[in-house]
Structure formats: C-alpha cells, structure tokens
Amino acid sequence: MENFLVKVVIILLLMVCLGYFNEKVTKLTYEISLMLFSIVIGAVLLGAEVCVSGETASEILGQFQFINLERFLTEGVLCFMLFAGSCHMRLRSFKTYARTITLLSIGATLLGAVFYGLLFYGAGQLLGLGLSLPVCLMFGSITAPTDPIAATSILKKFNLPKNIGFIIEGESLLNDGVGVALFVCFSGMVTAEANQGFFTVMIRELAGAVAVGLVVTFLIFPMFKRTGDEARRIFASLLAVSAAYLICEILGFSGAIASVVCGVMFSALRNREAEQGREMALEKFDTFWEMADTLLNSALYVMLGLSFLRILTMPQVLLLSVVAIAANLIGRSCSVGAMSLFAGKLPDGYDRKNFVALLTWGGLRGGLCVALAMSTSSMLPETVYHIVLGGTYAIVFFTTIIQGMTMKSVYRHIEGNLERHAD
Asked: What is the pLDDT of residues 31-50, one digit of tens each?
C-alpha cells in the first residue's frame, strides 16, 4: 500500500507542478508538456544516479521500473480512457464518413503494418541486425494503429475542421482491434504457434467484442435512463464499460473495441432519448467523464515520459530510432495513400495529396503501442526485445512531441496550399 501511495503522490506531484509551470511559462499543449518535461526530469535523475553510484546508465535502467505501464493500461484504466473518448462521439458524422473511416481503420492499419515491417526488415539487413521477417511484421503491427488517447486529447486542441478531426479520431478509435488481430497473427508466426489465420483472429477480436459491448450496453442502459439519480447514472456507465472489458478479456476478444462500442452506444441511446423528448439530467455524467479523461491521460503521459528512458538500452539507439521513425512515416503515408484511392469524395474540399499529408502527420501513437511492445518480452531474445521496445518508444516520442507540436503549423501550410489552388 505504501509503495502504491508513493507512486500516486509522485505522479500527482508531477502532473500538478509540470502543468502549472507549462500554464505560466512554456504554454505548450498540456499532454505534450507533461511527457516532455517528465523525460527531462527522468534524464536528470538518471544522470545524478550514474554520478553517485558509478554504474552505467544501462545497468541502472535495467533495475529501474517505476510502474508497469502494460498492466496499468491493460489491467487498469484503458477501458475507462476509451469510453471517455467515445461516449460523446458524433454518430451523424460517422454515418457520413463510415466508408473513409472503415478503410483507414482496417485497410490502412493492415497495409501500414506490412509496409513498416518490410521497410524495417530491409534496414535491419543493411545494419546486420539479423531480425527475421515475422519479427519485423510483428513490430509493424505494434506501431501501425494510431492511438485514440493521443488523437482525442491533442488533435482536438488545434481547431482542425470538424470533419477532418472526426475522421482522425474515428480511425484511431476503431483500428485497435485490427492492430491486436495483426499482432496476434504475427506474434504467432514469431513463436511458431500460428494455428489461426488473420481473418479468424480479426473476426474473434472484432465481432466478439462488438457483440459483448452491445449486449452489456442494452442490459445496463435501461437502468441508466430510468434512474433519477445522476450519481447512479455514472455508476451504471462505469459498470457497463468495466464489465464489457472484463468479459472480453476472459473470452479472448478485444476489450478495447468493446469499451469503444459501449461509449458509442451510450452516446447514441442518450441522443435518441433526447430526440424523443425524454431529456435526462447528464451534466454530472459529462463532467465526470471529462475529468476522468483528463486525469487518466495526464497520468499516462507522465508515466510515458518517465518510462521513455528505457530507450537508452537499445543498441545503436540514435541510428535505429531514425530508421524506426522514417519507416513509420513512410509506411503510414503509403497505407493512407493507398486507401484514399478508394475513399470516394474527400471532406472539406481536400485533394488526395493534402489529405494524405494531414492524416500521415496526424497519425499519433501512444501508450497502447508501448503496452503491446512490452508484451513481447517473453517471446523475443533480450537484444531483439530492446530493439522493438526502443523503436516503439522512439516512434511514440516523435509522433507525440514533434508531430503533436507541429500539427498546427502543418495544418496551416496545407490550408494555404488549398487556398492557393482555389484561387
């Protein structure tokens, strides 16, 4: 208990102090500032420990485990973070762009994993890393899905057009199941236990999760709408999303997708009640989930920042980080470009070139990728595991910090191009 409270106090201290410093001094996007400053603090503390103990940074990092990020996400708060991000989803916009979002969340994720895997495999051969193709494809499946937490918490602050912002958020919310299915398939190839095809795994991960999310929502929502107590409505939503996630974990489905389904269904059903003149008091409900979203996202970015130092254990850290980032950008651009050919009419007057550029730079990664990378520790040799984990951290850092901080400038540049072409 004492160890747990110490960690809670440290995380809250960093959240409050770094957030206050950013508000008054640096004025960066809140989540970006938390991750960036946590990395700086962690580096300073690591340097001090190296000087005092005389050990190398790698030796200290081998002992350093502030918190198990994989367990924090998959066995803790992931379901609540996804529900908070999807319970206010605009379903009318989804109907409008269902084709585009579906192509991106399924097709672009699949192609992105393959493109990334092939690119990193080629680079590994040139560098003499000796990485097998299945390992590189598994690496691609880890980094291909865009992160809904990063997308909803960072991109919404840049005042992107509603349609473009919705496509980015919608893709990131729905591509987790595809990413998990790809990961299971390629990791099975790595461990030579592949006895299920990709489509079998994807159907189980997606269809099973959707079914669980729908059943749980329809069982619990009647209590949600009939109770007159606002606190009980919050408790009912907590019960729905946590129960759906737990059931999926037991049955081998995607708990992430089930959490999103619960959030979307709660949004749809409450809107239907409002359209039929049966308004519910949901002010506290909305406030609770907004605060929960902010709290959990803030804690995640602090932990990502502190955990980022583990990238130092990766051999040839700088070179492999550049290779991983470049392969990710190329793979993302090619996969989005391929899917845009079938997307039909693009939103807001965008041409295909600018649409692909914006979605490539807006493809942020986050804690979900790190959790998948950490789960490979038992199936890979230590050196290969460090490459996978370090490359994943490099991509998460680059997309969150660099792409996140420059997203507004990229958007303005693209808008300028569109205006010049229009003239």
From this structure: 888 888 988 888 887 777 76
